[in-house]
Amino acid sequence: MARRVTVKADVTELPSPTSPTAAQKPRAMPMNFKDANPRVSSLMFWSSRGRTTSVGSEYDRSVESYSSGSYSGSSLSEDEASPKECESQSNSRGFSDFCVRNIRQSTRGRRLIDSAEREMPGMMLLRKNLADEKPLEGARIVCCGHVNAQSAVLLETLITAGAQLRVCSCNINTTNNRVAAALAESGVSIFAWRQQSEEDFWWCIEKCIFAPNWQPSMILDDGGDATDVMFTRFNGTFNLIKGIVEESITGVHRLYQLAQKHKLSVPAMNVHDSVTKTKFDNYYYCRESVIDSIKKTTGMMFGGKQVLVCGYGEVGKGCCDALKGLGCVIYVTEVDPICALQACMNGFKVVAIGDVIATVDIVITATGGKDVVTRWHLDKMKTGAVLCNMGQSFNEIDMDYLKQLPVERVRPEVANIIFPDGKKITFLAGGRTLNWSVSGLPPLVVSITSATEVLALIELWKAAPGRYKGDVYLLPKRLDEYVARLHLNGFGAKLTELSDEQARHIGVPKTGPYKPNYYRY
Length: 521
What we know:
seven-stranded parallel sheet; alpha/beta
């Protein structure tokens, strides 16, 4: 039996987030958004046998159809059976309501979770603050997100807060099998393993929605797949839940579409656009991981390279700042004039993609949109150019065209796409989000986003009837500030306190919130 070690953060106690110091009305997000793809998930390409194929050592630079497999660093053989087709497993206490690759990996998975806890003091402090109050007592949450050591800290914090969970993965290739086993050993109903088939992916989501003596009351989603399945196929169940918390831009776009059509019958909290998500996860994580990811997969030198970054939102800003520091010549494409002006003021050349696509060395998509790099652009790229995606989904690249071309597999997450004229471009991570597929996750950044998600769930669960309606909302400002406070101790930071006179002078509560809702950080 795996032994769990509880790591206590040596930080100062903070007031409970469920007791705001100043009343604040919930605010609905304006519904001005681009049309999103109706179903965007991180599913990849399938062989004729209906199973994913690995890009590990079994491929020695072989040439084959691009649609023959997904890009994954997993060592899983394509002939290995899906866990749902194998004999049922049980943990050391006889619990069997889960489906993972191998429950015997739980001890190693627990070590990974313990290590993540040590690097996430803000989340551990939040867990400590919620342990006695248990504000999520009675909540039954369907959790569809990446399954790794950092997300396990989030899940176990929700359990500490009183929630019951059923967990699945939002991505077929990002699950850490050892962590999934550790969660199953601790009694979590989890249905996730690395390198699922498309059938497995949807089966796992349904297992989280339906189970004996189980009626979901909330959804914690990343990408909108669990929400989409419940809304389109099990609408009666959907209408009974109390709220949705969504992390990704793709999932948020779907929610906006439902709200705009007056079909969203339950409130949803948009975590993706909360200050603590966009300013820290989207920018700082991408600033560090884009270099790490490209370097790991290609080994290239960056000095003097010409790089095209499509999109100058927080993700694009992080990528550009990192690449600029290593001496790259950077071009930016943008549709938003404000973001384009920011890029110009930061010294980047704003161009149309067609003007530079034939000469750049690296193309990075970071828009969260669709059809950014089309067939015409791909045909114009020079041989040896690198193509990758840092956005939410691979719909930014014309995957239908790439599937028709031969592929030369180089190493995990790296392939050369061979064009009819003999040209080769290097394609990373099969178009999936590059840093999620290749780079490690900084626990501190994940801690900030995870704390935001926990507080968003509590806010919806504890809200008085009628406070939130069938619309999309941002996290209240007081909770954004609370998340920041949780993490300042790790830096040894000391906040300056306002005097009563100072607070009156600028017209804010002495203990916050310190900025109005319209303030842009």
